[in-house]
């Protein structure tokens, strides 16, 4: 079938084989229906253009170092790709959009994991269609997160692991994902002993976690040299350590059940605005005051009173927040505070007055 005018689509696959293949399948189907196909792809794991002479290919630099590209830590890789591809992808797509000699683009089709592409498509006034390459059943579960949260299934409590999720048969609670987010902002630093204590307590908590360790934030090491050999591997994919994370987006994710924070003011507000209860570990300055308000006035978090070097305190706090009755009350309060924050933000800054006034 010949190509029809106004039917050019741009596709952007995630550079992992299980994501590239379905995107190319879709491209073939669209081509057979008369669409002209342009593929933007990263240098990393690039498809072979000679296998698809009927498509146009544009390669963008992904900026991954050799070590980054060969990591086994998938979560870090996906975060890095979302950060490092943003600029070259925007540049490449903007050029295509403004090229008057080419047929106009009908829409962008991007992999769901390339979440930064929504903002790019919006800025270029292009419709964006998302290709999800996972099964429909996992999509249903992710889409059901708001209900699962509202009905108290999440965060998952140990005592309920074998319970059926009535709304999603035959799933059991233990089949659902649930996560602790750990980050101490852009300034706070840790001693080696504190760093190791955090690592062991996270491991012992038995909860999935995403931990941001800023390079240079542990005294005496550049990044993760102090992590015991095999630490993450032994957790079987339950724990991920990254150098940076898009914090607001992470906190907005419904899988995040708690934020272990240094209570920098931005982090505190972001946690409240996303309704995420906090484990407060202030380091200095206003962080101590913020933490005390969060734990004792607003009561939307628990504070580590004895410092992290007290063995088991972190583990107990995580448990309290994620699994015990007190944690349930805290989660309920932070959800209400989130609603209040959203309402107050609509009224030109009354938020600050209402929560701390
Ligand atoms: N931040 C981020 N990703 C990271 C670490 C930090 O986006 O991996 C952002 C976080 O969302 C917050 C800011 O950096 O907006 C940190 O500010 P905060 O006042 O909480 O702490 P500070 O860095 O001033 O101690």
UniProtKB/TrEMBL annotation:
The lineage of its organism: Eukaryota, Viridiplantae, Streptophyta, Embryophyta, Tracheophyta. One of its GO terms (molecular function) is quercetin 7-O-glucosyltransferase activity. Keywords: Transferase. Belongs to the UDP-glycosyltransferase family. Pfam families: UDPGT. InterPro entries: UDP_glucos_trans. CDD domains: GT1_Gtf-like. This is UDP-glucuronosyl/UDP-glucosyltransferase. It comes from the Eukaryota. It comes from Parasponia andersonii (Sponia andersonii).
């Amino acid at each position: 079938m010949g190509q029809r005018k106004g039917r050019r689509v741009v596709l952007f696959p995630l550079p992992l084989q299980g994501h590239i293949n379905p995107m190319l399948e879709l491209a073939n189907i669209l081509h057979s229906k008369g669409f002209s196909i342009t593929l933007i792809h990263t240098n990393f794991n690039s498809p072979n253009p000679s296998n698809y002479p009927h498509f146009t290919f544009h390669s963008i630099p992904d900026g991954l170092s050799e070590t980054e590209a060969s990591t086994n830590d998938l979560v870090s890789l996906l975060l890095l790709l979302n950060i490092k591809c943003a600029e070259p992808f925007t540049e490449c797509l903007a050029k295509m959009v403004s090229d008057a000699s080419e047929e106009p683009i009908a829409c962008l089709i991007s992999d769901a994991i390339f979440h930064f592409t929504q903002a790019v498509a919006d800025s270029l006034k292009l419709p964006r269609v998302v290709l999800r390459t996972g099964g429909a059943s996992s999509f249903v579960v992710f889409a059901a997160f708001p209900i699962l949260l509202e009905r108290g299934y999440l965060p998952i409590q140990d005592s309920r692991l074998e319970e059926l999720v009535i709304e999603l048969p035959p799933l059991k609670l233990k089949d659902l994902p649930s996560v602790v987010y750990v980050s101490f902002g852009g300034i706070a630093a840790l001693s080696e002993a504190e760093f190791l204590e955090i690592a062991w307590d996270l491991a012992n908590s038995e909860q999935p976690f995403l931990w941001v360790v800023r390079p240079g934030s542990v005294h005496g090491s550049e990044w993760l040299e102090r992590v015991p050999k095999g630490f993450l591997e032994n957790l079987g994919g339950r724990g991920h350590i990254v150098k940076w994370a898009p914090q607001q987006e992470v906190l907005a994710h419904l899988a995040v059940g708690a934020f272990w924070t240094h209570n920098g003011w931005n982090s505190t507000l972001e946690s409240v605005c996303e309704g995420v209860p906090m484990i407060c570990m202030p380091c200095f300055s206003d962080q101590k005051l913020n933490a005390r308000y969060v734990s004792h006035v607003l009561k939307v978090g628990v504070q580590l009173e004895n410092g992290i070097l007290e063995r088991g305190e972190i583990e107990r706090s995580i448990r309290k927040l994620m699994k015990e009755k007190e944690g349930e009350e805290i989660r309920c309060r932070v959800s209400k505070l989130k609603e209040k924050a959203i309402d107050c933000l609509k009224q030109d800054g009354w938020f600050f007055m209402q929560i701390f006034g």
